[in-house]
Structures are given as structure tokens and as C-alpha cells.
Amino acid sequence: MIFIVVKFTIRPEHSDEWLSRVRDFTEATRAEPGNLFFEWSRSVETPHQFVLVEGFASAEAGERHVGSGHFKEAMAWMPDVVATTPEIINVHTDAEGWSPMAEVTPR
Questions:
Q1: What CATH number labels 2-92?
Q2: pLDDT tens digits in sequence order for the chain, 107 residues long
Q3: 3-class secondary-structure state, position 10
Q4: Domain boundaries defined on the chain
Q5: Half-sphere exposure of 15 (CA within 13 A, CB side)
Q6: Where do the H-state alpha helices sit in 1-107?
């Protein structure tokens, strides 16, 4: 699996509209063959920062994502609304998705 985390810090005047602006991109990515998850969260510590957690079944699926029209379209407009260059972690792992956490279970 390709596991990716990206931090997007958005210009304050665009922050409230960020999730609606990435909606089509998000839905198209989730529909891609090989996409395992594509989830947005908003930072509770850094104003105007959104964190994207994504997983792809293989390197090929990740490459198809980056080559897709919706990816290229998003990359074309995102420079107009980001405040800083996004930060990314991109790793290959033997995991095939999320696993249950051993240290905490419901009582």
C-alpha cells in the first residue's frame, strides 16, 4: 500500500470554502480503482490547516491518481488558495489498510 499524509495550509480568506472546493476532487479520487481511502481533517492546532490521509493499493494506483484529469485540475487551482507549499509524507508499507489498535478497545 502507498500511505500518504499531506498538510495543506490555506490562505485565511479561502479556508472556510476549502472542503467544498476539494469535494469533486475527493469524490473522483475515492472512485478510482485502487484507492483505499481519501480522508480530510481540519487541524485543531494550526489555523487554516487541513490534513489529507490517503491510501492506494499499489504504486501503479498512485501513479494513475497523479496522472488523472481530476488530480491535474486540482493542482492547477490549488496554488491560488494555499498559503504555503503543502507538506507530504509518502511511504510504501506492507499493510493493506487500517488495522485495529491493540492498546485500546471499547469496554
A1: 3.30.70.100
A2: 999 999 999 999 999 999 999 999 999 999 999 999 999 999 999 999 999 999 999 999 999 999 999 999 999 999 999 999 999 999 999 999 999 999 999 99
A3: strand
A4: 2-92
A5: 16
A6: 12-15, 18-21, 23-30, 59-67, 69-77
Is residue 14 within 8 Å of 81, Cβ to Cβ? yes
CA 38 – CA 30 distance, rounded (Å): 6
The C-alpha atoms of residue 107 and residue 92 are separated, in whole angstroms, by 34
Which residues, in sequence order, are CB contacts of 25 under 8 Å at separation 6+? 70, 71, 73, 74
For residue 101, CA distances in Å to 57, 85, 89 come to 21, 32, 21
Question: What is the distance between the alpha carbons of residues 85 and 12, in angstroms, rounded to a whole number?
Answer: 15
How many residues in the chain?
Answer: 107
Q: What pTM was computed for the model?
A: 0.93
Classified as helix, coil or strand, 49 is strand
pLDDT at 19: 98
